[in-house]
Amino acid sequence: MTRGSATHLKFQDGKEETVITEQFLPRRLDAVFGDQFIFQTASLRQRIKAKLVLLAPLPCDVPPFAKSVVYLSSLSGPISSSVYRLPGAETHFFRLYIFARQADVKVTLPPLFRGVVNVKNHDGFCPRGRVRYCRAFRDRMRCGLIRLDSCALENDDEVYIHAEGSMELRLMPLSRNDGCENIGSRVGRHVRRIFGTT
Question: pLDDT of 138-149, one tens digit each?
Fold first, then answer.
């Protein structure tokens, strides 16, 4: 289940930007049929800036949960995506697909990201020299917590990037929240109101 908002902005250079904030509530694995896209955004020339927030499950739900799936695509605009995992959402995994035909891609992942990252151009090759990793990302790769061009396990996060431009992959610092603690408290307040608890 998702909940979010999208804003379309126009800049002086004539280019448009779609700004998305989407919240994902985990769904129980036995309630999901097939591998449907939960959220998708596609544009021809617009820049896409996405803030994706993984929420903790409701108190009545227990793992295993289905992975939240996100699809972002732009023909000629750059894509920037940040994924936030709120406290309590450690068992809420995600699968992120990014397709950028002619532009750059920047992906910022949760600080404790563990899973697979597959980066390819549209011919199916891994573009050497066009992918930049931050130091924390490289450290987690050396420890085996992040695997490149590998198969994902059930408890892995997954990132698939198909792009022709440059790509930057980074992890958030452990202390960075960017207002996500406010989102978590609002969701918690609404959940308490639904279940009649204080």
Answer: 999 999 999 998
